[in-house]
Structure formats: structure tokens, C-alpha cells
Amino acid sequence: MKIGTVRGIKIKLHFSTLIIVGLVGFYAVTLFLDLVPEASLVEILLVGIINGVIILFSILIHELAHSLVAQQYGLKVSEIELYLFGGVSKIEEEPRTPKSEMIISIVGPLSSLILGAIFLAVMLFNPLILPPWLFVTLLYSGISNIGLGIFNLIPAFPMDGGRVLRAYLWNRRNNLLSATKTASKLGRIVGYSMMALGFIQILFGQFGGFWLIFMGSFLDKSARKSYVQAKNEVTLSKINVRDVAGWPEFAIPFDTLLNDAIRNYFIVFTQTYFPVVRGNDIVGIVHLDDIKRVPIEQRSEFIIGYFMKSLSEFPLIYEEETGKDAMRKFNQMDHRPHVAVVKDNETQRIVGFISESDIVNAMKLELYSHGS
Ligand SMILES: [Zn+2]
Question: DSSP of 127-185, one letter per residue?
Fold first, then answer.
């Protein structure tokens, strides 16, 4: 659910945030009732709702800190989503330098700690006597923000603390991949420790342990996933578009009937797409999906030219760009095939095509030839 936009960043709420709001509201109310056992129902509801909403804003501020600093470093941030485990800032690219990663990662926990300190300071140094609901709210929000800050500083990649650690190792070893490997290993160890702790808690009859097991396994999974992702990114950036791009071996003439195209090209060469030529020029690309939706009885009436997509509908890429650039462009496409037109930067002439499967194959080759 989209609730707003800040500097071009969409702010979204996942339905699972309701669980946090509910839990936080519940704990705040429990604390409130310890202090004011005779509280009225209205006061109880007020404390629950206010604390639930404050925690959402606290998480949002934490994520905004990451996102706005990332923007300062020229990284594109598409959205912030709040969900069960807090928030995620969808930063489109990985930070380019250890220093930027360090700063982007640390500002989140830092802003939580500062926010928490402000809540507590207002509570402690207020000359007026605070009404109990406000006292509880300030206390609870202060503690939960400080908790949020400290929790995120645990050096378990891909959590903030783990990213700080990775940035430090990256800077020292000058090797992003090896830094990621160490940081995510630690992430997995922390994940397993949480699960073990949760298990022990359950053995002793504390059912909060399920929550720890759940979080631990989530952390382990994200650590593994992030490592694979980092490895793929590094491999992709080693692939040169120039080396992988090529000219297609077969092309379908513009005025070929759909029937004939299917029979003589798609079936014979078992490819899912072909360039379409008119005279000596490639004018478009036709994918099996484009013609599949034409009813069989009409396939002898239409020519391929009507169903192809013209070249302008495919992204452009220059020879000196990398597999990473190409994949980013493919991910932004909303139609198949994922093919880009390769041009020479100086002459602006088309020098070939590159497809997603070309890149995937090159990636496999790179991974096999250098091991993992
Ligand atoms: Zn964070």
C-alpha cells in the first residue's frame, strides 16, 4: 500500500506492518497498565495506537536516513517498504566505494539512536509533570528506537552492522567479493545463533523463542542470498558487451506469413525470437509470444511485419558497457524478448544484438572458468 512519496521515493506499507503496530501497541499498553492500573479504556487505546504509529514513523526515519544519503551518493532509490522486520530501502545499485557503503549503512542506526535519545531526554528533562500516557509513550519510544539502532548494528550481513563490517573489510582487502563472503558468513552464524537461542527458549517454555527462530532463519537466508547476489554482480561487471554481442544467424523477412514463419523458422531453429529484415536492414524483432495470440485460422492471412516490435522498443547499449549495465536494462523492460541493440559509441551504428541468455551463458562460463 502506497502512503506517500519523499524526494521521488515511494513509501509503501506492507500489510505485515500491522503485526508490528499491534505488538508494539500491546507492549506499550502492558507497560502503561503496570504504572496506571486504573487507566480508562480510552487511555489504553490511545497509548496503544500512538505507540504503534510512532514506531512506524521511527522505522521510516531510519530508512529515510539510508535512502537520502544514498541519493546524495548518486544512487537511485525507488521505494521504501515497511514490513514485518522493519523497513527496506530499495536502492537500485550497490554503493560504489567502501566509504559510501559505510556512511549509507551507518546513518540508519545512528538516526534511530539519536531519535531514541531525544525521546528519553524529553521525558527526563521536562520541567512539567507529564501525564502518565505521555510518560509511557516517551519512555517506550525512546527505548524501542535505541533498541532498533543497536539491533541493526549487529555485524550480521545484510543488516546495517554487517554492511559496515563489509565496507571496512572491502576497504582493507580492496576486494568486494571476499569482504562480502566474510560478512555474510558472520550473518549466517548470527542467524544460526538466534535460531539456537530461540530453540533453547522454547525448551524452557518461553514461546518468544519461535520469533527468534523465525528471525534467525530469515537472516541466514538473506545472508546467503546477498552473497550470491554480490557474486553475480561482480561476475556481471566482468562481462563486456563487446565480447558477447553478435549478429543473429537467421532473420525472418518482413512480409513472411505467420504460418510460414512458424513452420520455417520457429520450429526449425527452435529459437523463441528472430530479427525481422526488410531489404538489407533489421527493422524489428518478433517473439513467439507476439504471434501465439493470433488464432490459428488467421495465421495464413497476416505477415510477420505486423506483429514484430520495432527496434526502437528495445533498449540501447554501447559496446564498452558491461553485463551489469545490460542486465539493469533488461530488468526495466516490460516485454520479451530481453534483447538490447548494441551500438558503437563513435559512429552510432548498430553493431549487433545482445540477449539476456547471452549474458547468462557468459556468466556461467566466467563462473566455471574461475571457480567460485
Ligand atoms: Zn537500516
Answer: SSPPPHHHHHHHHHHHHHHHHHHHHHTSS-TTSHHHHHHHHHHHHHHS-HHHHHHHHHH
- For ion ligand 1, residues whose CB falls within 5 Å: 108, 152, 160
Going from the Cα of 323 to the center of ligand 1, the distance in angstroms, rounded, reads 29
**Which 3 state secondary structure label does DSSP give 1?**
coil
Q: How far, in Å, CA of 354 to CA of 333, rounded? A: 14
pLDDT 10s digits, 85-120:
677 777 777 778 889 999 999 999 999 999 999 999
Residue 112 CA to ligand 1 center (angstroms) comes to 9
- Determine the distance separating the centroid of ligand 1 and the alpha carbon of 104, expressed in angstroms: 9
With a cut of 80, say whether residue 36 has pLDDT above it.
Answer: no
Instruction: Please give the pLDDT value at position 186.
Output: 92
Residue 284, φ and ψ in degrees, nearest 5: -175, -175
Using CA atoms, how far residue 185 sits from 175, 181, 191, 342, in Å, is 16, 6, 10, 39
Taking the centre of ligand 1 as the mean of its atom positions, its distance from the CA of residue 108, in whole angstroms, is 5
Tell me, in angstroms, the distance from the centre of ligand 1 to residue 351's CA: 44
The C-alpha cell that represents 64 in the structure block: 529515510
Q: Cα–Cα–Cα angle for 372, 175, 357, nearest 5°?
A: 45
Question: How far does residue 60's CA lie from ligand 1's centre (Å)?
Answer: 10
Would you state the CATH architecture of domain 242-370? Roll (3.10)
Kindly give the distance from the C-alpha atom of residue 327 to the centroid of ligand 1, in angstroms, as a whole number.
26
Q: Contact, 198 vs 216, CB < 8 A? A: yes
Question: What residues does each domain of the chain span?
Answer: 2-153, 172-238, 242-370
